[in-house]
Amino acid sequence: MAQQNPKDWKTYDQFAYGIDTNRLPLTEALAGTKHTVHFDDGRELALDFTGDKVTWADASGSGTDSVEVVEVAPDTYFVEIAFAGKPLEAETIILNLASRRALSILSIVRSKEETVGEPQVGQIFRPGVIAGGEASGMVPEETRDLIGLRAHFTYSPNHVYEHTYLSSKRYAWQCLVGVQRGHGDVDLATTYKFAEGQYIFTFREFKIPVASTFFYNFADMRSTGKFLGINGDGAIQNSNAGAFIRKASVTFYQPGEAPV
Fold first, then answer.
1. Which domains, and CATH codes, for the chain?
2. Among the residues of the chain, which ranges form H helices?
């Protein structure tokens, strides 16, 4: 018997409306530039930015699609590509043009049949480097740095959420202000450290088909991200989001008793 969601559980589009109010503005800083990213798994991705479009090419094919670019830290860009020919996919690429480090997060809406017992929207992570110079700084990698942190995220006057980072695999959320007030859950999560004070936090929900990718800049206490999932009408929706971050508390664990 299929598990039923709690009464009055909101659909993706119901909670996402207005959640981009506090998002950082778009930038045209990459317009007119070309970059090639070599990923650790062998993928090579060419990017040619022109206004609100990007022409991309890799071994799977090529295309020209809509792109949004946000400068989330100095020389660091949150690049979101929505593929017209692949509506079930969206790719977020974090590019640091100074260190030449990159991280791709590909979100994919899958069928219910192939995801029994798993979140329906999956994610693939690919660290890489931007060609054309020597990469410097730390290599983006999975991290346990956020474990034990409890923080509040204000996306708009009508969207305030509390996150508690439970382990390297899961986090808990609850809505403090908004249409989901009183609702919360524990979902699968993956966190990458990109540089000092900079993290890419992602989560994949069980109760509704949605996954999210966020860049945290703790120097500015800002979060910039997106959601990809299926809305209440059954359509694919890719929504922007952004928040002010406030750290609320940190839990410290005894040696040998830390979460997985």
1. 12-22+141-250 (2.40.128.20), 34-130 (2.40.128.20)
2. 12-16
| Token digits of residue 256 | 């040998």
Confidence (pTM): 0.95
In whole angstroms, how far apart are CA 103 and each of 18, 41, 189, 250?
27, 12, 16, 27
Both structure tokens of 162: 């509390």
Residue 152: how many CB atoms within 10 A of its CB?
A: 16
Q: CA-CA distance, 120 to 252, in Å (whole number)? A: 33
Specify the 3-state DSSP secondary structure of 67. strand
Residue type, 38: H
Q: Label residue 214 left, alpha or beta by phi (over 0 means left) and psi (-120 to 50 means alpha).
A: beta
- Residues 80-133 have pLDDT tens digits of 999 999 999 999 999 999 999 999 999 999 999 999 999 999 999 999 999 999
- Report pLDDT digits (tens) over 135-168: 999 999 999 999 999 999 999 999 999 999 999 9
Give the integer Cα–Cα distance in Å for 210 and 204.
6
